[in-house]
Amino acid sequence: MRVAVLVNPSAGGGRAAAVCAGLMPALAGHEAATVRGFGAELLPGVRALEAPQAAGYVARVQQAVRALCAGAPELLLLVGGDGFAAYAADALLGAGCPVPRLVGVAGGTANVGPIIALAEPPASLEGLSYRPVGALEVCDEDGHIAYAFNDVVLGDTYLTTVDGRTVTASAEALWRDGRTQPCAPMADIGPVAVEINGRRARTRLPRVAQAVASTLERDRFYGRAVTGLLCFAPDSPYRAALLLSERAIVSLADDPLGFERPALMEQLLFTGADTVTLAGCEDGVSAVIDGNPYRRRGRVRLRYHERLLLAAEREGETTWKC
């Protein structure tokens, strides 16, 4: 089998090296290839490809994916966290080539899935269970930004790891200058207006500190009324949800009251046939997609797309085998 391997070598404070060592037995007997700078140094004996030079980390990931796709792989093996997997999957979907099956092995600090689903390297690449994976396409006034396989957060901060500790940091400092600048999230991202299919959705929050949209396909909320509208999501046409919150949810900034202080929130469910638009955010608000900060210009549009990829799944979540 033709197997492409893409690795974030800095993932998990060195865990990527251990994962790659564990992958070597599974790669034996397959026609495997990787890319210099994205796995070649950690996978001795695996054919190493050269990708064109590019400015910026995201562009380098895109070039690496294109180099691997030129060999028409049947399977793309990813080692890293959710953010790295999202960069790679977005590049794969935009490369214009047949999309191989994905196997994601946890090597980062955030491994929620659905792409990074295996906690340890598989003993074999044969007989793995796969499931179709959808995503939210996130666009602004300039067009496509990225696909969100977990969630997109409209705010001014994101979560990252500094010296082994998870902190809240400035999204703009990262995408503008490549700097990690710890900071607290803003209390109000602006007079957010929500439309679904061009029709204004009435909201009543006094302010919005974060807007979060997430896919629902991997979640189980049936009968759990405490989750609000999400308890209606299973076995329904709803595939994604939007949450408006008057306090930041995705944050580790100090809060003297912690979770004892009530939070006001509003939820909106939507289907793959719906387009959700958010307007009114301040200029300093970024789109943080699967943990990766992106610059945003103007209105943000969200649309769910189903069955974009086939990804290996965790044991116990079997839907079908390939």
Automatic annotation (TrEMBL):
Transmembrane segments: none
Highest taxon in the source lineage: Bacteria
Gene3D superfamilies in UniProt: Probable inorganic polyphosphate/atp-NAD kinase, domain 1
Domain annotation DAGKc: ranges: 2-111
Classification via InterPro entries: ATP-NAD_kinase_N (IPR017438), Diacylglycerol_kinase_cat_dom (IPR001206), NAD/diacylglycerol_kinase_sf (IPR016064)
SUPFAM superfamilies xrefs: NAD kinase/diacylglycerol kinase-like
GO molecular function, one term: kinase activity
Pfam families, per the entry: DAGK_cat
Signal peptide (from-to): none
Protein name according to UniProt: DAGKc domain-containing protein
The species this protein was found in: Candidatus Aphodomorpha intestinavium
